Amino acid sequence: MASVQSLFRLDGRVAVITGGAGLLGYQHAATIAGLGGVPVLLDIDAQALASNAATLAAETGCQALTLVADITDLAALTAAFEQLMARYGRVDILINNAARNPKMESAGDKDFSRLEHFPWEQWRLDLDVGLGGAFNCAKVFGAQMARQGGGVIVNIASDLGVIAPDQRLYRVEGREAEQQPVKPVTYSVVKHGLIGLTKYLATYWCEQGVRCNALSPGGVYAGQNDVFVSKLAQLIPLGRMADADEYRGAIAFLCSDASSYMNGSNLIVDGGRSTW
C-alpha cells in the first residue's frame, strides 16, 4: 500500500497549464513543480508567460517549457502540442485554467455589462476562450492521454459556476439602477459550462483511464478595491477572500493519485460562500 505522502507525488508527469501567464496559472505550475511534476505553461501572452516561467525557475528551480498559442485556434494549439510531444513524448495532466474575466464597464459606456446591452461579439469572444478553448485543449491533449492509456483533466470553474453572482457587490453609489454595472452574464455561463464539460469528459474517456474533475475556487485577492473586498468578505463564512496560493492543496489532490477514485466531480473551495 502506498504511503499517503506518495499519493500526492507527480514525479515525471507532464502537466499542461493553460492560462499559464496568469496569477493562478503560476500557482498551478508551482504546485506541479513542487510535487516533482513537469509543468508546461501555455498562454497567448508571450511576455507574461516568459515572466511567470522566470519566476518559477527562480523560486522552484524548474525550467518550464512555455508554449505561446491561442487556444481558440485549433491549428495553433496543435502546433503547440507537437512542440510538447517533441520534447516530452507524452502528456499526463491538463489544467484548463485559461479564461476571460469580462469587465463590468467600458470607457464611455456605463451599462456595457448589463444583459440588455451586452454585445454579441463579447459573448462570442468570452465563450470562445472559456468554453471553446477548454474543448479544444481536451480535444488535443485529452485525446493524447486516451491514446496513452490514462491521464487527468482538471477544469477550473468557479463558485459562480454553482451560484449566481450577487450583483449588489458591483453597485456604484449614486448611479441610476439601469446604469449600474453587473457581473457579466458570460462569466456565469462559461463557469457553469465548464462543470458540464467536466461531467461529459469524465464519462467519455473513462475506459481509457482518463479522469476529469472541476475545481471551483472562490474569489482571489489581487488588489481589488477595499469597498469590493469588504462587501465580498461579508458573503463568505470565513470572512475573507482567498490568497492565490490557497488552491495549491486542491490542485495537488485533483492532479495526483490521491484523487484516483474521483471522477466527474466539482470540488468547491470558496471559504463557504456557496453554503450560505
Structure description:
There is one protein chain. The protein is an alpha/beta fold. It has a single domain, classed as 3-Layer(aba) Sandwich (Rossmann fold), CATH 3.40.50. Helices cover 40% and strands 13% of the residues. It has helices at 4-7, 23-34, 46-60, 74-88, 120-148, 185-204, 226-233, 248-255; strands spanning 14-18, 38-43, 65-68, 93-96, 151-156, 210-217, 266-269. The protein has a 7-stranded parallel β-sheet with strand order 3-2-1-4-5-6-7, sandwiched between helices. The longest helix is centred in the middle third of the chain and has 29 residues, at 120-148. The protein is globular and about 60 Å long. 41% of the residues are buried.
- CATH architecture term: 3-Layer(aba) Sandwich
Question: How many discrete domains?
Answer: 1
Order of helices and strands: HEHEHEHEHEHEHHE
Shape: globular
- Profile the largest sheet: 7 strands, parallel
- The count of β-strands is 7
Using only CA atoms, what is the Rg? Answer: 19 Å
SS content category: alpha/beta
Strands across the major sheet, in which order?
3-2-1-4-5-6-7
Question: CATH topology, which one?
Answer: Rossmann fold
